[in-house]
Design goal:
This protein has helices at residues 16-25, 31-44, 49-55, 64-84, 90-116, 123-151, 155-181, and strands spanning 200-204, 213-218, 221-228, 231-236, 250-252, 255-257, 264-266, 272-274, 283-289, 292-297. It is α+β, with helices and mostly antiparallel strands. It folds into 2 domains: 16-181; 200-297, Rieske Iron-sulfur Protein. The longest helix is centred in the middle third of the chain and has 29 residues, at 123-151. The structure holds FE2/S2 (inorganic) cluster. The site of FE2/S2 (inorganic) cluster has 12 residues, from loops.
Length: 302
Amino acid sequence: MQGSTVTSAGSPRRPRLHQLAERVGGIEALDGPAEAVAARVRGKLGPGPVKDALSGSWLGHALHPLLTDVPIGTWTSATLLDVFGGRRARPAAERLIGMGVLAAVPTAVTGTSDWADTTLADASVRRIGAVHAVANTAALLLYGSSLAARRRGRHRRGVTLGLMGLGALGAGGHLGGHLSYDKAVGVNQTAFSEFPEEWTPTVAEADLREGEATRASVGDVDILLARDGGRIYALADRCTHRGGSLADGSVADGCVTCPLHGSIFRLADGAVVRGPAGAPEPAFDVRVDDGTVHVRVGAQSA
Ligand code: FES
């Protein structure tokens, strides 16, 4: 191969803080304790209305990121008042810290529920999530202690504890951002899938059995085909929650259940019947031509 040049792509250098988060994701020693805690949480918090409420299924997307705004906003504002607000701002800073402490409790509960859904296949996500939780718990303890110190009249100590809390909050926030924006945790897992808008052939109608899920490919994506009550339905195969394969799930009563965390989607339109998924599953129009099932993405899912 004289004269030919081969270049291989190198890894782009990422910012230091990004590398730090990735290093946290590589700490294998976290796996044992993390799985033990996650299994306990999953045991206490099975599929059902409480899990749906914590996951944000009623909201259409994850609830936890929304709640984080309150402790982050109130604690950051309190520390800014400590630094720039002078003596007159002390009562306001104290109230803000108290509000943040109250808001941190549901925020932590929703985050723990989401984190427990990570699997060992998501090892780095689980490890980063565990350290994210530890950092935020440290922030809660530090701001709680700051509040207690202020109430005892030890303002300077309260400010110092608040500054330390802000440091822990920043570390936890960075790892949380890494989980969302680099690891796509909490993101609709079909958001970037490209589905066929024209009728596209899939499998022979005769291959679909009543009550069984079948996987088929259309272009670059997999879909789930299911015959239920004599009708044929098609949904995206990739679960919107954490990417489980719905074709590996079970079909019954006009719905499919994801094998990973038990989300239930209606076959007719992909609606979430039970969480923890928040986003509905993309659904397809179906028609049979010459014994072959054809699909195209439905108007609601396009
Ligand atoms: S991947 Fe979690 S319910 Fe489907």
